[in-house]
Amino acid sequence: MRTVRDFSSPTIAVLGGSGLYDIAGLEDREWLTIESPFGPMSDQVLSGMLDGQRVLFLPRHGRGHRIPPSELNFRANIDGLKRAGATEILSMSACGSLKEELPPGHFVVVDQFIDRTFDRKKSFFQEGLVAHVGMGHPVCGRVSNILVSEARGLGIGVTDGGTYLAMEGPQFSTLAESNLYRSWDCDVIGMTNMPEAKLAREAEMCYATVAMVTDFDCWHPGHDHVTVDAIIKVLMDNADKARALIKAVVPQLAKRDSLCKQGCHTALDNAIITAPEARDPSVVEMLDAVAGRVLNG
Fold this sequence. Notes:
By secondary structure, this protein is an alpha/beta fold. It has a domain at about 90-295: Nucleoside phosphorylase domain (Rossmann fold, 3-Layer(aba) Sandwich), CATH 3.40.50.1580. About 25% of the residues lie in helices and about 20% in strands. A hairpin with a 2-residue loop joins strand 3 and strand 4. Helix 2 (about 140-155) crosses helix 5 (about 230-255). The longest helix has 26 residues, at about 230-255.
């Protein structure tokens, strides 16, 4: 297993549905058990080689979709991927659409988030070691640009940029909530990308989201006419497109030969505010993967 502080060459992690790792050409498959000081991950991590590039896959909800959104151990998932060597994370996420022009089957490469979750641990840092990372631009523009370009090359309907409203769940929105989020000019709504994006930034990893629309949220007048069979068909079609997109994107991401010029790999350079003599050694030890580059450098 490679060192967690080696960013010079990429290892690409995919967070998403259990079927996304079933990609033609994925070789040397091995399920890895990664121990994290933040508790158990959603599942083992599948490591494989795709066109000569190491790729990691983590079923976000566990194989068989066992874990609901609000019970995901986001910190363990991100920390564990970092320990496995991940430098870039592709988040492939099913979502609802808040706009007529983003129909089921459409992809949105998100560039902003509004976090409406309230029952989740959102930072690796805590009493004894305080840090504040910048989140003005919460995704990696370099990775996002590659995703958009390759999606268009595959003929996938994709929108470059959009705001993802992250809600708690597991229940879906009320009609009043859905209309409120539409009034905020949000584009898609989901339950999993926060605090995922915040934690990836704290862990100094490039992070980008492909929001895969499965249905219109309850605001749409035709919502009540959508059948379960229709939604499942969209999910299956989206998974096929997602696998094709991952296969196309990986060789492009593999070309990186230096630290991310967007600053993702150096996000902690000026973030830690606690004086060295005041840092809790037990917290420092827990953050050996997430922040070891700056704490032990």
